[in-house]
Design brief:
5-stranded mixed beta sheet, 3-stranded antiparallel beta sheet, 28% helix, alpha+beta, elongated, Nucleotidyltransferase, domain 5, 7 helices
Length: 234
């Protein structure tokens, strides 16, 4: 029985917005077996990061059979988000960061993770505007999108603007405030040992702790200034 050969495809991407936020666009190039296809699109109101994500998503969604895909992007935001496991952890934590912030662009990160599961995908960072042929071409395509007359609405970004307060950092200030990850009332904890980083002039006398998910919150009210010359931590 013959083993089906999985094709190896290269995907080059770039995206941007002018200004940021502002009108945006992305460009993508798919290369396989000596052939290549180019894509671009423009959006009325969006951000650089959303366009970088959309470039990768759009390119991967054009691949209709399981493939080994190497993605080349000049966006550390995108490359590190996948290669360092940030996006996977965000998804596991219901798109809430450690400090309780909601993850920006979660609609696109979720969409990217879904399409990645259909392939074997590796991300590689390339330096932008450094003479990389395909990256320069994708930049050109992204600008075509930015300047096109048929730009479309970025519905995900518009939804974010409608609920921007939810995405801004929500600070926990006192015992009993609800944990931003699981809505459990927080309790005050005093550390058994105080650790101070070099050159720091303060420490936290206590922190707020979630007894359910074990999240920790450092609060301004617990901040204590160390008088100069005090050897408290020596």
């Amino acid at each position: 029985m013959e083993t089906k050969v999985i094709p190896h495809i290269e995907l080059f991407t770039d995206g941007g917005a002018e200004p940021n936020p502002g009108k945006g666009g992305f460009g993508a190039i798919l290369k396989y077996n000596g052939r290549q296809k180019e894509f671009f699109a423009g959006y009325e109101l969006t951000t650089n990061n959303r366009m970088e994500l959309m470039a990768v998503i759009f390119g991967l969604e054009r691949i209709k059979t399981k493939a080994k895909v190497t993605v080349y992007s000049d966006s550390k935001y995108v490359v590190d988000g996948i290669e360092k496991g940030w996006a996977v952890n965000w998804e596991k934590n219901n798109w809430i960061k450690k400090k309780g912030n909601l993850v920006l662009n979660k609609d696109l990160w979720s969409r990217l993770l879904d399409v990645i599961k259909k392939h074997e995908v590796t991300f590689r960072w390339v330096k932008g505007h450094a003479g990389h042929i395909e990256n320069e071409r994708c930049d050109f395509l992204a600008n075509k999108g930015i300047n096109s007359k048929d730009r479309i609405k970025d519905e995900g970004y518009l939804e974010y603007l409608e609920h921007i307060e939810l995405y801004q950092e929500q600070k926990i200030q006192k015992e009993g405030d609800l944990c931003r990850k699981c809505n459990t009332p927080t309790v005050k904890k005093i550390p058994k040992k105080r650790k101070m980083k070099p050159n720091k002039s303060f420490y936290y006398e206590y922190y707020l702790y979630c007894p359910n998910c074990r999240a920790m919150y450092m609060v301004e009210a617990a901040k204590r200034i160390i008088p100069e010359g005090n050897n408290l931590f020596e």
